[in-house]
Amino acid sequence: xxxxxxxxxxxxxxxxxxxxxxxxxxxxxxxxxxxxxxxxxxxxxxxxxxxxxxxxxxxxxxxxxxxxxxxxxxxxxxxxxxxxxxxxxxxxxxxxxxxxxxxxxx
Length: 106
What we know:
Structural class: mainly alpha
Radius of gyration: 15 Å
Number of helices: 3
Shape: elongated
Helix content: 55-70%
């Protein structure tokens, strides 16, 4: 395995891991009555989605992202997974501000 392939796999693992943390945080918020001032930023989920909507969306997203690894050219993998990892790390930090961390940070 080349360094480039290892880097792509590492970036993919970071992106998928960040998605899993986001899923867990969002599910936690949805399961414990959304904070009054919090609105989901993702328009595909709605303002305060139910746990089942969160699970269906995030599960589908993670499967689709994993499948894209085999469908994209090398440069596309870097672009997609690097973008997802960067955005999701920011989302995870924002979720913590709204009580989605374990234990909730206030």
